[in-house]
């Protein structure tokens, strides 16, 4: 009974001064930090197990992309300059957060590019996170959004479905660019722009004449459609690898910070406990001596 | 069809011979092949002797110093003769083959498997299934079935 009253007295005192937390407060705080640490630590482990698979997918996707782009390099393909350019930006990100600045940096890069193109841009957002971010500032530019990406390592089927939807609207765009987070190393990524070419641009490539193509088979058109799907696939794979590694780092930092907080709060908890015990002893002793 | 294919490959060959006389003999005489899939890399700039690909306009063989070409692939067998003389075969469902100036061949396909990976029975049942849907009143289903039939018929001659 007495002890109860004692702590209550301490608590009321702390409410007034605001710098002396009670034992119970510290205990709940400590417990919640410990739980958070457990969660972040698990997320870190999950991310690091996924990382190797994601990196492998990214590497093969890059080889695929290089094989796909070789022809544009040799044909010196460039976007067609038109009097009334219509731009389309495809922004590749994902649905899930808790991975550092990965979504905001790509949204920032997109906004910058939109400003550069005098706002004469349509945007396709792949992934919920980037859609909400762009919806805040550039809602008028957003024409199409996809979600449900980034849960697992991307497959070509995902990319084909997305590109099919985009292709339904992309025939009127003179300039198409893909934004994605390029995986640089385990600790860094870089928002990158990849240009895409439509059939017209491929036909007008300066060095295309050195290639033998079948005129009747609509090769440029099929090639541009195929490349759109390929580019989306490789961007998804690269973006996914950067996201997973960013998440691992973010969760690693969070766990470390939680560890620091746990040590600080444990010390504070023990100190406060001792102080409370001392106070109670003082109370008891003074009470006992007054009876003498 | 067969005649035109044969003719085409003959024509290609004569072109190849005429080009060969102009080529510098030493370094350019090898063909570098990149055969890449979205989820796997089968060949990455590896030297090979000859590659036969199923083009949309008929099968054709590619040797070193082939003229640059962009060709869409139809479902069929790619056969690769390696420098050691061994032949590797892959069935592809479609994609693109591009020969770059400088004897580099890049093939991008969505799927590629060795013929031994297919079961002839499964092909047969799926083909029967697809053929049923070819004349479906729903255009989307009919188009999907037509593509399935195209792939499976090509596969039927390959699967053992």
From TrEMBL, chain A:
CDD domains per the UniProt record, alphabetical: F1-ATPase_gamma
Write down the superkingdom of origin.
Eukaryota
This protein's record includes keyword Transport: yes
Task: Give the organism the record lists.
Answer: Wickerhamomyces ciferrii (strain ATCC 14091 / BCRC 22168 / CBS 111 / JCM 3599 / NBRC 0793 / NRRL Y-1031 F-60-10)
Q: What is this protein called?
A: ATP synthase subunit gamma
- Write out the entry's keywords from A to Z: ATP synthesis, CF(1), Hydrogen ion transport, Ion transport, Membrane, Mitochondrion, Mitochondrion inner membrane, Transport
Quaternary data: F-type ATPases have 2 components, CF(1) - the catalytic core - and CF(0) - the membrane proton channel. CF(1) and CF(0) have multiple subunits.
Q: Which GO terms describe its molecular function?
A: proton-transporting ATP synthase activity, rotational mechanism
Record has Transport as a keyword:
yes
Where does the UniProt annotation locate this protein? Answer: Mitochondrion inner membrane
Q: Which Pfam families match?
A: ATP-synt
Automatic annotation (TrEMBL), chain B:
Q: InterPro entries, per this entry?
A: ATP_synth_F1_dsu/esu, ATP_synth_F1_dsu/esu_N, ATPD_C_fung, ATPsynth_dsu/esu_N
Record-given protein name:
ATP synthase subunit delta, mitochondrial
Q: What does this protein do?
A: Mitochondrial membrane ATP synthase (F(1)F(0) ATP synthase or Complex V) produces ATP from ADP in the presence of a proton gradient across the membrane which is generated by electron transport complexes of the respiratory chain. F-type ATPases consist of two structural domains, F(1) - containing the extramembraneous catalytic core, and F(0) - containing the membrane proton channel, linked together by a central stalk and a peripheral stalk. During catalysis, ATP turnover in the catalytic domain of F(1) is coupled via a rotary mechanism of the central stalk subunits to proton translocation.
Main subcellular location: mitochondrion
Q: Which family does it belong to?
A: Belongs to the ATPase epsilon chain family.
Q: Which segments constitute the F1F0-ATP synthase subunit delta C-terminal domain?
A: 118-157
User: What sections of the sequence does the record tag as coiled-coil?
Assistant: none
Q: Which organism is it from?
A: Wickerhamomyces ciferrii (strain ATCC 14091 / BCRC 22168 / CBS 111 / JCM 3599 / NBRC 0793 / NRRL Y-1031 F-60-10)
Q: Where in the cell is it found?
A: Mitochondrion inner membrane
NCBIfam families this protein is in? ATP_synt_epsi
Write out the entry's keywords from A to Z: ATP synthesis, CF(1), Hydrogen ion transport, Ion transport, Membrane, Mitochondrion, Mitochondrion inner membrane, Transit peptide, Transport
What CDD domains does this protein's entry cite? F1-ATPase_delta (cd12152)
Annotated Gene Ontology MF terms? proton-transporting ATP synthase activity, rotational mechanism
GO CC entries: mitochondrial inner membrane; proton-transporting ATP synthase complex
Q: Where is the ATP synthase F1 complex delta/epsilon subunit N-terminal domain?
A: 31-102
